[in-house]
Design brief:
The complex is a heterotetramer, with two copies of chain A (about 120 residues) and two copies of chain B (about 400 residues). Chain A is about 45% helix and about 20% strand. Chain A is α+β, with helices and mostly antiparallel strands. Chain A has one domain: Alpha-Beta Complex (Sufe protein. Chain: A). Chain A has a three-stranded antiparallel β-sheet with strand order 1-2-3. In chain A, helix 1 packs across helix 2 and helix 2 crosses helix 4. The longest helix of chain A has 16 residues. Chain B has a seven-stranded mixed β-sheet, sandwiched between helices. Chain B has a four-stranded antiparallel β-sheet with strand order 9-10-13-12. Chain B is globular and about 65 Å long. The two termini of chain B are about 35 Å apart. The chains are: A alpha+beta (about 120), B alpha/beta (about 400). The complex binds pyridoxal-5'-phosphate (PLP) (2 copies).
Chain lengths: ~120, ~400, ~400, ~120
């Protein structure tokens, strides 16, 4: 079902966990569809110094969160805001069709986390 | 890698004796049972033997067994076939919220075409209340369809009581025994049903073969038309090879009933005990006692089922899950939802169903692997600490 | 005793390569293709391979093939499924009087439930006239179903012309290719059909497995409901073993198409020539040229078909007959009757259908035995001397 | 399908053929159901000295005709009139259910032949 890249990220998810003193936190998904993804960011000088995530979700959700953190880490906030769910899926070499809709939400969570950070800047 | 199959309710491997017979039949029996010549008569003889063996499995008569293309088809003949044959008598059908989709969705289809369907609720164990069945019966009720044992939770329904109520009210009664047969006693007279569904591939026979038991005199319409095989109930050249395999599987299920079920129940109990002891925040789903001897169904709080399933798979352990992600429809288990389980625990459910090839070592291997997997996912679950029921 | 099977249109033995693959699969592949774990994925892989092979057999796309529980079921999905899915568009269906019962009887059932069905007549060869199809099309015609080749007489219909007419009038077109595939070219684009029926057991695959080709975008309703397998068109756990066998049979049918059909046609021609030379008062039924390469169908005046069939059987030769006595419904062949054959010749019909295991010696043996049998029955037939057509 | 007794009579039908100078002839059946049976009798001193039959019919028809002639031969006309289709089927150790209706007509043909004989006596 899942390709080897997805399975690698599922088996060895990068950057899992919490950032206790995160600058921004974003959570997406809901239990009725079965996937929840929460992203934590640490922003230093307009750059994402650290990105971590937690998930309650299927293989695709676990892998998407992992891939997202890899894509986002080190980017500027502006660059990170441009990452799409599709970018994540592509970086994973694709997800099964039925998984694209529900489990591919990591970029949305990141954007929420960055908005959270921004709202605190004002 | 060590491979442990614990998904026997999804399907079973062929029994070695079934393989042996089918191998022989593939080479030596090929006629069309409708043909009058020797090749056809030979095939017919094998078909009849299989029919007798399936009849014997449930204490039925030879001529009460109709072979179908699987349990799904048999369920549909029971539901649609009874509804259409008796629509002059009434338009009301009673079933439960925890039926297999083969019954649930055929009833839903009938509800869209002029019939009225009552989907009975269930208690926390997924159990139907016979009193409630009685209350819902109307003067135009023509069919009650309640499964014997649930395919997800293994919960066993009070079928004898329900069939008695059906009979008292002169309503046809169908029960899906796909999961129960071979695991708990299934006898047509004790159960008192008019129609019973069986499937070969849950009892170590081939897939794509099932049977409908139809008590003599009960009228049903076929789902489709053609050469009139199976006394017009299921047209189409018979799946002789599959049916012969089913017959052998039925024979073995009778012979090994006691020894296998006792053995498997022991393993299953060991698994349940171990899981509940070793892992915190686990719920055993389904009825604690009135359940199939091979079924252990858990919800692991904070953790999603497909992830558990995949992780177990990477360790060679095959199970299934009621999470939305692991179903092709992306709907979480209607059985667990109807039993009142909160969404999170529905998505965190994993079913272990044991069978012939499982050993004590298998169970212990699962118990050595599972706690770490659950723990690992919990370590990065955003739900840990939130209130769950 | 020498055994000669010449009833390949009734069913075929499994090809040795099909047996080999299925033997292997029985032992090593058993997962439920819907399961997410390795056992399920493995079964799914085999299922997909088979689907590709069946698609290749008729030049279709992978996703246009839907596996069913046989040709009968596929025919019924095509007929009922199209009718119900498009009943808002119209209620008129055109078919022919010589279709297989799977099409004929499903159309008859529709005719009883609000649809209108035109059963086209055929000529003396059992052939449908495309002009007549055109004439019968109405503004509310939704489906035309005409078989590619007839299972009794082997007559090949002008499908390309009919499908062109259907397309011009924006009517769905179904053709039953159960008998034609593997024997004459069947290509979805050349035939131009929207729906095509295939059956495994006529091409050396197992019984109880078929396929519906459904052109992308054509909507049909399923016959029954459940787990939603085969993209909701045919619910029920897939008959993996049977489907895998079907896939292999499809692959072989492509590979051996030229060599086998040339060989079998030679034998068939030898049989026809011999019978017509050696036996007086014989009629070759079906079209003299536009017929399947393996079919020889005769009526022997003054003699009843079942008696011939049984006598041939006693000599080890397996054939079938269109007589009333040899059918389970006790109706004489509707195909021969529609072709205008007088009753006596319908009852006196015998079908020889040749295949893989037949040899020239087989044909010569039949030719050495048959004249005596016919002669013997004629010697005490009360009809000899009476006028027959 | 057929039992060994039936098959024996099918394979070696007794008394097939015509009686050219028959005293009575009876024919039953029709082509729409596919079976025709014709019985010839020779009556001498009120006894069936010879009985023969012809048939266009299935295995059951061939065997029924054969068995009938065996049962009837030598009997008096009165005895012969009492032979039923059922007697014939029983003497054959039974016929398949679907054959009882259509192919088991031999006694009817015999009765017709005897009536034919009778009508000629007057
Ligand atoms: C309770 C129940 N009913 C019906 C079915 C359908 O049977 P089949 O898989 O043979 O179509 C199944 C299994 O899938 C089942 O578990
Ligand atoms: C032309 C035709 N259509 C349909 C069928 C039915 O297919 P199946 O035997 O697989 O149900 C047959 C054979 O029986 C056939 O010859």
């Amino acid at each position: 079902m899942y390709n080897p890249t997805v399975m690698d990220h599922f088996e060895n998810p990068r950057n899992v966990g919490e950032i206790p003193d995160a600058d921004g936190i974003g959570e997406v998904g809901n239990l009725s569809c079965g996937d929840i993804l929460k992203v934590y960011v640490k922003v230093v000088d307009g750059k994402l110094e650290d990105v971590k995530y937690q998930t309650f979700g299927c293989g695709a959700a676990v892998a998407s969160g992992s891939m997202l953190t890899e894509l986002a880490k080190g980017k500027t906030v502006e660059e990170a805001m441009k990452i799409t769910n599709n970018d994540v899926a592509e970086a994973l070499n694709g997800l099964p069709p039925q998984k694209r809709h529900c489990s591919n939400l990591a970029a949305d969570a990141l954007h929420k986390a960055l908005e959270d950070w921004r709202s605190k800047q004002k | 890698m060590r491979k442990i199959y614990m998904d026997y309710s999804a399907t079973t491997p062929l029994h070695p004796e079934v393989i042996a017979l089918m191998t022989d039949v593939m080479k030596n029996v090929f006629g069309n049972p409708s043909s009058l010549h020797s090749f056809g008569r030979e095939a017919k003889k094998y078909l009849d033997e299989a029919r007798q063996k399936v009849a014997d499995l449930i204490g039925a008569k030879f001529e009460e067994i109709y072979f179908t293309g699987g349990g799904t088809e048999a369920d549909n003949i029971a539901v649609f076939g009874t509804a259409y044959a008796h629509r002059k008598k009434g338009k009301h059908i009673i079933t439960s919220a925890v039926e297999h989709h083969a019954v649930l969705d055929s009833c839903a289809k009938l509800a869209k075409s002029g019939f009225e369907v009552t989907f009975l609720p269930v208690d926390q164990y997924g159990m139907v209340d016979p009193e409630q069945v009685k209350k819902e019966i109307r003067s135009d009720t023509i069919l009650i369809s309640i499964m014997h044992a649930n395919n997800e939770t293994g919960t066993i329904q009070p079928i004898e009581e329900i069939s008695k109520i059906a009979k008292e009210h002169d309503v046809f009664f169908h029960t899906d025994c796909v999961q129960s047969v071979g695991k708990i006693p299934v006898n047509v007279d004790k159960l008192g049903a008019d129609l019973i569904t069986l499937s070969s591939h849950k009892i170590y026979g081939p897939k794509g073969v099932g049977a409908l038991y139809k008590r003599k005199g009960v009228r049903v319409e076929p789902l489709f038309y053609g050469g009139g095989q199976e006394r017009k109930i299921r047209s189409g050249t018979e799946n002789t090879l599959g049916i012969i395999g089913f017959g052998k599987a039925a024979e073995i299920a009778v012979r090994e009933f006691d020894i296998e079920n006792t053995r498997v129940k022991g393993l299953r109990d060991r698994l349940i005990k171990g899981v509940l002891e070793k892992i915190p925040d686990v719920r055993l789903n389904g009825h604690p006692e009135k359940r199939l001897p091979n079924n252990a169904h858990f919800s692991f709080a904070y953790v999603e089922g497909e992830s558990l399933l995949l992780s177990l798979d990477m360790k060679g352990i095959a199970v299934s899950s009621g999470s939305a992600c692991s179903s092709s429809s992306l709907q979480p288990s209607h059985v667990l939802t109807a039993s009142g389980l909160p969404q999170e625990l529905v998505h965190g459910s994993v079913r272990f169903t044991l069978g012939r090839e499982n050993t004590e070592e298998d169970v212990d291997y699962v118990l050595s692997v599972l706690p770490g997997i659950v723990e690992r996912f919990r370590s990065f679950s955003p739900l840990v600490g939130r209130k769950t029921v």
